[in-house]
Amino acid sequence: MEKLQQNYDLDIHWRSYQLRPPGSPPIPPQLLERIKAARPQLQRRAREQYGVEINQGPVNIDSRPALEAEKYAESQGKGKAFHEAVMHAYWQQARDISDLNVLQEIAQSVGLDSGDFASEIKNPEYDAQVAADIDLANEYGLDGVPALVFADKYLVMGAQPYNVLQQVVERVQAESA
């Protein structure tokens, strides 16, 4: 996404989504083992194909606090910085982004006044914004991440090479010209 933004005039909006919302059935132990066993391959692929080092955080956590915290950060003009810091904490530092202490540290690191952070992010307005994003994802038929929607028209699922995303952006730009 960063490379696309460098090469094209894009307006990116990150939306909330929960792969496993509260109330989902537990992940079967066999699947958890397969996920853990696949981590080295994921790390190698990310490094070789995308030049990214991955050190993924815990699986099967409740991401809702992080999503609500991001809505709070957006309301304070720090949404992009907070989003990037949370992604870095989870994907490079293997941190548990369901932990309010971790989220508070991240908030402080991006310059958010986090006096009573836990209370701030529990504002019903942020919960409603997260719910609206998830409803939109359901309307699009999303059931996995990453998922990118271009111009409310083109859905790209899964981690894709840069040239695939570039083709979609160029198509959208050609159609709007």
Structure description:
By secondary structure, the chain is mostly helical. The chain has one domain (18-141): Glutaredoxin (3-Layer(aba) Sandwich). 56% of the residues lie in helices and 5% in strands. The protein has helices spanning 2-7, 29-50, 64-75, 79-91, 100-109, 117-121, 124-140, 162-176; strands spanning 147-150, 154-157. It is globular, with a radius of gyration of 17 Å. The model has no long low-confidence stretch (mean pLDDT 89).
Number of continuous helical runs: 8
| Low-confidence regions | none
Query: What overall geometry do the principal axes of the alpha carbons give?
Result: globular
Structural class: mainly alpha
The level 1 CATH classification is Alpha Beta
Order of helices and strands: HHHHHHHEEH
Portion in strands:
under 5%
Distance between the termini: 22 Å
Overall mean pLDDT stands at: 89
What is the total number of structural domains? 1
Give the tally of β-strands.
2
Largest sheet: 2 strands, antiparallel
CATH level 3 topology: Glutaredoxin
How big is the Rg?
Answer: 17 Å
Helix coverage percent: 55-70%
Question: What's the architecture in CATH terms?
Answer: 3-Layer(aba) Sandwich
**How is the largest sheet built, in terms of strand order?**
1-2
CATH superfamily: Glutaredoxin
